[in-house]
Amino acid sequence: MAADIVETLETFNLVLILVAFAIFARLAIRGKSLGNFRFQLSIFLLIWVLSEIPHIAGSLGLIATDSLTDIGLDLHAVSMGVFALFVGWRSIRFATLHPTPASGALPIPKEPAKGIKG
Fold first, then answer.
1. 83 CB-contact burial (10 Å; exposed 0-12 / middle 13-18 / buried 19+)
2. Does residue 103 belong to any structural domain of this protein?
3. Which of 6, 30, 58, 69 could make a disulfide contact with 65, Cβ separation 3.0–4.6 Å?
4. 57 with 63: CB under 8 angstroms?
5. Is residue 100 part of a domain?
6. What's the first-to-final CA gap in the chain, in angstroms?
7. How far is CA 117 from CA 27, 57, 66, 106, in A?
8. Residue 78 and residue 56: Cα distance in Å, rounded?
């Protein structure tokens, strides 16, 4: 009984992983440029989705994954490290100060001008 429930949930999980693959593939195709953040993130997530398929297939008994247990953990750790570097590299501009560009506009005074009563 419990094994049937687990198998049903794993099958549903596999279907959702394949749907996620289709979504991220579409986003990667729509990214159109290697420098585009959407493209880069979609490609990374595609790789991540693909890495989940052997785990689910092993749970369903479709492939034997007993010899890949340690390799899978190592690859997962490496992929999380690469993901952290990717997000950090792409978001570094939010952490740095940027000088305001010269716009030709007059600056807004911080104190009211003397002689003006309000």
1. middle
2. no
3. 58
4. yes
5. no
6. 80
7. 58, 77, 82, 22
8. 20
> Does 109 reside within a domain?
no
Q: What is the pLDDT of residues 67-81, one digit of tens each?
A: 666 666 677 777 778
Residue with tokens 């000088």: 99
Output the six-digit token pair for 85. 């570097």
pTM, to two decimals = 0.55
Could you give the CA distance from residue 74 to residue 95 in angstroms, rounded to a whole number?
A: 30
Query: What amino acid is encoded at 13 in this protein?
Result: N
Provide the residue type at 79 as one letter: S
Number of domains in the chain: 1
Q: How far from 30 is each of 17, 38, 62, 74, CA to CA, in Å?
A: 20, 8, 33, 32
Domain with 90 in it = 2-94
What are the tokens at 115?
């002689």
Question: pLDDT tens across 19-39, in order?
Answer: 988 888 888 888 777 777 778
